[in-house]
Amino acid sequence: MPTSGPSRTAAEIASQPATWRRAAETLPRHRAALPQRGERVAVVGCGTSWFIAQAYAQLRETGGHGETDAFAASEFPLGRGYDRILAITRSGTTTEVLDLLGKVKGSLATGALTADPATPVMAAADAVAVLDFADEESVVQTRFATTALALLRAHLEAESALPAGVRTVQEAARDAERAVTEPLADAITEAEQFTFLGTGWTYGLALEAGLKMREAAGAWTEAYPAMEYRHGPISITAPGRVAWVLGPVPAGLADDVARVGGTLVAESGAAHGDLDPLADLVRAQRLAVALAEAQGQDPDRPRNLTRSVVLPSADGENG
Question: Using alpha carbons only, what angle is made at residue 198 by residues 196 and 204, rounded to the nearest 5 degrees?
Fold first, then answer.
């Protein structure tokens, strides 16, 4: 059954400009958990946290802070040489993340970002940045994930390692204030299919936008690197279907979308006045909630999902 009044998810989405600013303000006390310049770093997570890890990895390496890879926690290549693992886990209880931190404990430095200080990750990682002000009641992640990325962006900014053209957290927060209030166009809310596209660090955001739409609304969504759009994904675009680019639009792509009758959404990029790509992700979050509610679904409690994935251990006990 749908919720009565605004959903909890909608309220958490709307709070993001404030949580991003607070993340930047609290950076000094979180530095021990964050990568140092020049370290070879692996960033890990599951689901949303994995996609945020991908976005950060691109930002950090492109900004010259150090070689950075992103992995689903279950797919981390044990034995590969890294100086540090940084884990992102909202709940602090995700089995795959805790298992990995346990396997590498004592052999390399580990840090974690979490929303809950009363969870096992506090002991599993060497240092933990707790963003409890961005914790959520909703099953579907929105503000914790973006706030974690805001903290990581603020760190790169403070280290003079924010890639050229990427806005500051304060600028992104101002853009997010627009993103949480501006109406969503009918061409978006009435579409039947969405292909999210990104380039560099915004590809991780595109993956996350698609996941949000599937989780909250069961929507038909896909996500690809923007330059891969012509290599197959364009075949699904048609009237009533959307190609949504987070970040710069590659040359000629708008014409290609128009040629097949699709709707191009491109509210972020390099042009003055456009939204920061992270703020554009907020618009996709809002759309997911709107579609869920229009279908009579509860976006706070989507089907088949729980707030954290805690798997049984080998002896039958919950891990």
Answer: 90
- Name the pTM for this structure: 0.93
Residue type, 165: G
User: What is the DSSP annotation of 235-301?
Assistant: GG--TTEEEEEESPPPTTHHHHHHHTT-EEE--BSSSTTPBPHHHHHHHHHHHHHHHHHHTT--TTS
DSSP structural state of residue 132: G
Tell me the β-bridge partners of 244. 196, 265
Top-tier CATH class for 177-294? alpha beta
Q: What is the DSSP letter of 234?
A: G
What Cα–Cα distance (Å) separates residue 164 from each residue in 60, 73, 139, 147, 226?
A: 12, 30, 35, 21, 19
Residue 258 CA to residue 264 CA, distance in Å, equals 8
pLDDT tens track for 49-60? 999 999 999 999
Segment 42-96, tens digit of pLDDT: 999 999 999 999 999 999 999 999 999 999 999 999 989 999 999 999 999 999 9
> Which residues are bridge partners to 251 per DSSP?
none
Residue spans in the chain of domains classed CATH 3.40.50.10490: 8-164, 177-294
**In what helix (H) or strand (E) does residue 196 lie, and over which residues does it extend?**
strand 193-198
> Could you tell me the fold of the domain covering 8-164?
Rossmann fold (3.40.50)
Sign of the torsion angle spanned by Cα atoms 97, 100, 105, 111: negative
